[in-house]
Amino acid sequence: MDYVLKLGGSVLxxxxxxxxxxxxxxxxxxxxxxxxxxxxxxxxxxxxxxxxQRHNLASGSREGILETHRAIKELNRKVVDELRxxxxxxxxxxxxxISKRDQETQxxxxxxxxxxEEGFMPVLHGDGVITGQKGFTVLSGDEILAKLEKEVKTxxxxxxxxxxxxxxxxxxxxxxxxxxxxxxxxxxxxxxVSGGMKNKIQEILDHEIDxxxxxxxxxxxxxxxxxxxxxxxxx
Length: 235
Fold this sequence. Notes:
Layout: E1 3-7, H1 9-12, H2 25-33, E2 38-42, H3 45-54, H4 65-85, E3 90-92, E4 99-101, E5 105-107, H5 110-117, E6 121-125, E7 127-131, E8 135-139, H6 141-152, E9 157-161, E10 176-177, H7 196-206, E11 210-215, H8 219-223, E12 230-233
Parallel strand pairs: 1-2, 1-9, 2-6, 3-6, 9-11, 10-12
Antiparallel strand pairs: 4-5, 7-8, 11-12
């Protein structure tokens, strides 16, 4: 496994229109197809966030999980189909079925690792997770990436987002941050049910991994082993 990559929902979808892909959706997938030796995790974007918000899934819900899960599965199907059309042996993995949450989140990655071993590209996504006494709550793609990288240690984990990285006051990505004290919300537009940029950084630090946060235009650089955007160093 060469890398673990989270594709932000804002990269794949039009966040202003429920259930709409972004204009650059196919271009992003084509870039990934040039280096398929990794695991993809994608956000819920305008497919999963609206139903999750309607049913307050972040706090726990028994009613909204099916609508939310089905919406995210539809986006996942489109990602997998596009990768397949580009010649990648992509397969869907729905985290709801391999995860649970009590005091902490537990995810069984063994099927994912076996898929990679057999030459497939697993495509996971943010999802709902069964949670003690709450029904289902949100399992973010950010947390999935952090836990997977913690387990497999590719040393090449990345978040492809709609912004260039963690930005300074001039709107440019800082090279590296090592704590939440280094973070400002400069350049961050809006929030979502999985926590946005702050959540990405917190997951990296909490799981003691290193990961890069970079913009869509730097995706090829990341896949080529270069060092775009901001390195969040948690190790």
